[in-house]
Amino acid sequence: MTINNVAPKDIEALGRYQKMRRLWLFIGILLVGAVLMLAGPIWIDEGLAEDIELAGIGLIWIGVVGRIWSTLYIGGHKSSTVIMDGPYSVMRNPLYFFSTIAAIGVGFQSGTLTAGIIFGVLCWLAFQIVTRREEKHLSGIFGAPYANYCATVPRFFPNPRLFKDQATLTISTKRMYTTLLDGLVFFVALPAFELAEYLQDIGVIPVLFRLY
User: Are 212 and 112 in contact (CB under 8 A)?
Assistant: First the structure.
């Protein structure tokens, strides 16, 4: 099920806001990541740190696959149509949810749980601000049908019991490829944190603080 018929000017306005949101979030993650390059795990057991990093890789994969799954449904309709099937039937913002999952995985590449929690909380807070503005915008466009959708489907954390689907999908291949490339950016964390760890080991980068 979908809700559509949006004026082009409304699509353009929301699209500009979403682009700025992505830019500022990306800058914020880079800054936090740069600070975490100066941190190290508090535990001596290297095996524990490696286990956390491995779990982080799994979370990144979940986040990337989830984003692609969400994009299959949103297609080229983002900002112009409200999709209410598939991942959008269990939560209103699956792209943001899976991005947060992947961000936690990025933080875990530092070998610490704290970094993953920091990344996750920052993304969650940022997306809470974004979704509220988007919902206000969409409520003014779609009215009661969208208000009913918001009243029955959670904003961020999924409710699997609400899941429903449709038999066929119209897929935007361009948007799917763009989402795939965007998702691969999360994997840049793997060599980045490995390089930081190596530079710490040889004394090029100081370890200013340690995290759990």
Answer: yes
42 burial (CB, 10 Å; 0-12 / 13-18 / 19+) is middle
pLDDT tens for the chain, 212 residues: list them. Answer: 555 555 545 555 555 655 666 666 667 677 777 777 777 777 766 788 889 999 999 999 999 999 999 988 886 565 567 788 999 999 999 999 999 999 999 989 888 898 899 889 988 988 888 888 888 888 888 888 888 999 999 999 999 999 999 888 878 788 888 888 888 888 888 888 888 888 878 878 887 777 78
End-to-end CA gap in the chain: 45
**Residue 33 burial (CB count, 10 A):** 20
Query: How far, in Å, CA of 165 to CA of 147, rounded?
Result: 20
Tokens found for residue 10:
């409304």
**Which CA distances in Å does 87 have to 98, 164, 197?**
11, 8, 37
Q: What is the pTM of this model?
A: 0.81
